[in-house]
């Protein structure tokens, strides 16, 4: 369907534009005739030509600028179409002039038509080319908008694919470490290994349920982190202590799922597990306007052996938040005096397009 005909407001604006054209023609072509005669003749005729001009949409799409058709063929087609449309318009003018004189008696519409017929034909051709130029502009605008829409959709698909890939990297990283812990327990404490298996099953069930969502309540994310730490407490026993402090206003904040898991995992594996005496992991969360700030702090051994895998979870989390929110400094990590601190600032409102 023609894009103008898809919306009543567009049709109204389009007809109004042609009424204005009819008024301009009435002033320019009235010559010796009365203005009322010219207006009565040209205003309805201009509205009729408005619908004739809509046909240029299909011709312009069949012979687009810069398309396969040559410039010569395009010019010939548009000349022939303009002549045909103008001939139809002039013929309708003859019929309308007779009808006006039949209704108005001494209006003089036929005399006006006879005097202006050659000029009417030229004006009809010019109006057709004006309509064609407008439709070429409309097609160019529509093509540009469709290209922008496709580019935007491709960007969204690429971002979603990247997020899925990052999640796929985070999940196995946690599972492999958990299975390694269970394997170590089976030789020293079978009962603890069984308890850890059950806790891991509950944790994975929740991650599957919540991880498929793009956003979950922070209270649910907090609970997932606590379940992970409960699994590690089975292995580490009294060496692992947990201190929690959460702002009540943070509970309902929507956050990406599995956000805290790499933080608490790093705190245990690269912090508490490396210390003979263990330590305390402190988790805090508070909301400050449109930002939710989560901090995870743990003791660490300054002289520990640094491997290539250390910090992988944090790097993946940085990349995930950068992809999802466009924020490059959402994750800040600092080690000072045997304490490792990670601060994550999560925007609660979608960022404006730049």
Can you walk me through this structure?
The radius of gyration is 37 Å and the shape is rod-shaped. The chain has 2 domains: 3-150, no CATH class; 189-347, Heat Shock Protein 90 (2-Layer Sandwich). The strands form 2 sheets. Strands 2-4-5-7-6 form a 5-stranded mixed beta sheet. The protein has a two-stranded antiparallel sheet with strand order 1-3. Strand 4 (279-288) and strand 5 form a beta hairpin. The longest helix has 80 residues, at 109-188. The model has no long low-confidence stretch (mean pLDDT 82). With 354 residues, it is α+β, with helices and mostly antiparallel strands. The two termini are 34 Å apart. It is 64% helix and 13% strand.
Q: What structural class do the secondary elements suggest?
A: alpha+beta
Number of strands: 7
**Segments where pLDDT lies below 50 for 5+ residues?**
none
Shape: rod-shaped
Assembly type of the chains comes to: single chain
Strand content is 5-15%
* Helix percentage range: 55-70%
- What is the N-to-C succession of helices and strands? HHHHHHEHEEHEEHEE
Biggest sheet, open or closed, and with what strands and sense?
5 strands, mixed
- Taken together, the total number of domains comes to 2
For CATH, the homologous superfamily of the largest domain is named as Histidine kinase-like ATPase, C-terminal domain
